[in-house]
Design a protein that fits this description.
Mean pLDDT: 87
Radius of gyration: 18 Å
Strand order of the largest sheet: 1-2-3
Strand content: 5-15%
Number of strands: 3
Low-confidence stretches: none
Distance between the termini: 28 Å
């Protein structure tokens, strides 16, 4: 699965933030996006290694600049690594983008003071491409709300299982297994 700019492609191995923090950032979304892009360019220059395939993924789309899920994930290739920096700590998209800018800037500081090997070690924890056939539970259940309730998750499971069950036309064991896994992951993430 390749990351998409819309809807949000969240890495499967990074847990979602349950309790949002208040941000002190005072930035707009266009300014925060510009900061991320310029910081990645500076990082490439500082490291002498090309940054490619940048995808800034979120649920922001035409007419929706305050989505229920304000998470942002920046995916890119650097020095042969597929890297993802994903933040959903704040309730506003622009604050999560600005946080990613500060994380990238932190890698630039590591590069200046610790060298390339330190940054590579740091990025090892950010290697986060989803498994090729592993969709997020939000995609499988088609749930976009920030923190769905147990009732919403179980309701979506019941509705979707009618068409994905192996006995249903077009259903299969694989589709039902994916749906069951998504329900389990969703309930685990919300603490149920």
């Amino acid at each position: 699965m390749s990351p998409t700019a819309y809807p949000l492609t969240w890495p499967h191995n990074i847990p979602r933030t349950k309790n949002k923090a208040v941000s002190k950032f005072k930035t707009t979304l266009p300014a925060a996006l510009k900061n991320v892009r310029s910081s990645l360019q500076l990082f490439a220059t500082d490291s002498g290694k090309k940054v490619d395939g940048i995808t800034i993924s979120s649920n922001v789309t035409l007419g929706v600049d305050r989505p229920d899920d304000p998470g942002v994930a920046v995916w890119f290739q650097w020095d042969g690594m597929s890297v993802c920096i994903a933040v959903d700590r704040y309730p506003k998209v622009e604050d999560n983008v600005q946080a990613i800018y500060h994380i990238i800037d932190g890698r630039r500081t590591e590069l200046r003071h610790g060298g390339l090997h330190i940054v590579k070690a740091t990025f090892t924890g950010l290697l986060a491409l989803p498994a090729p056939d592993h969709r997020s539970w939000r995609d499988v259940l088609d749930i976009n709300s920030e923190t769905p309730t147990r009732e919403v998750i179980e309701g979506r499971f019941r509705t979707l299982s009618k068409s994905r069950h192996p006995d249903a036309p077009g259903g299969s064991q694989e589709a039902m297994a994916e749906l069951s896994r998504a329900k389990q992951e969703a309930l685990q993430e919300i603490g149920q």
